[in-house]
Specification:
By secondary structure, the chain is α/β, with parallel strands linked by helices. The chain contains nine helices and ten strands. The chain is globular. It binds adenosine-5'-triphosphate (ATP) and magnesium ion (MG).
Length: about 240
């Protein structure tokens, strides 16, 4: 089966200084691949490289078999790569509905854009709060809004950068359940960048570990709950 996403020896960084070095990975259709690692190892840099906000200095990136190494973020978004950045970046002063409508105006470039009511069906809480300002939502609801806004464009691959960041643990677990549900119901292939081990263990099918910008191991998601693993790869 063709990998939805494939990175071959990708090196990328800022101002000519490499952060990610020789990263190779692939994600098959329908998988939830988790990428875990300590603060500052280069997870967000890798996310930006996957979505086209950063261009690799060497290596190749394939999406659905197409070489997108030199394709910009807009091209990749239109081709079906949906990206929710770390910190969510919703518009705090706009209502839920306005935030989603903006997603719709961007999503409209895709012929198959999903309608707002469909997003509300996926996230009933957002329908209830649709006239509320984004900034007044809880962290978990803001994360749903950020994901909902991306789902309008009907992505085939979802790249989530630390959805649990700034969210209390019980809500993080709800987000994990949500990610698993979207994966199941929409067959959404997902790259989940996370430091929350419980979330990864409960929703990911595969898990790779990053250290100093490189992939150093692949483990079973459940193995992360073994203190020896978390100590080795995540303890500060
Ligand atoms: N825009 C930027 N310009 C220059 N250097 C950057 C930039 N963004 C990040 N870096 C550097 O790249 C390295 C990796 O940062 P990155 O944000 O990718 O790590 P991370 O694994 O996502 O960390 P965290 O878990 O805290 O989100 C860090 O040393 C950081 O200082
Ligand atoms: Mg990060």
């Amino acid at each position: 089966m063709t990998a939805v996403l494939r990175l071959e020896n990708v090196t990328s960084g800022y101002d000519g200084i490499p952060i990610n070095r020789n990263v190779s990975l692939d994600v098959a259709e329908g998988q939830i691949l988790a990428i875990v690692g300590r603060n500052g190892v280069g997870k967000s840099t890798l996310a930006r490289t996957i979505v086209g906000l950063l261009r690799p200095s060497s290596g190749r990136i394939f999406y659905g078999g197409e070489d997108v190494t030199f394709a910009d973020a807009r091209h990749r978004a239109m081709a079906g790569i949906g990206y929710v950045p770390q910190g969510r970046e919703i518009f705090g002063r706009l209502t839920v509905e306005e935030n989603l409508s903006l997603g719709a105006s961007i999503g409209a470039r895709s012929k198959e854009a999903r309608a707002l009511p469909d997003v509300y069906d996926l996230f009933p809480i957002l329908r209830e709060r649709r006239w509320q300002k984004g900034g007044t939502l809880s962290g978990g609801q803001q994360q749903m809004l950020a994901i909902g806004r991306i789902l309008i464009g009907k992505p085939k691959l979802l790249v989530l950068d630390e959805p649990s960041d700034g969210i209390q643990p019980s809500i993080a677990q709800e987000i994990a359940t949500l990610i698993a549900r979207l994966n199941r119901t929409l067959s959404l292939t997902t790259v989940l960048i996370e430091q929350n081990i419980d979330m990864v263990a409960s929703c990911a099918n595969r898990c790779i570990i990053m250290e100093k910008g490189s992939v150093v191991a692949e483990v079973e998601p459940a193995q992360l709950e073994d203190p020896e693993f978390s100590q080795r790869y995540l303890a500060i």
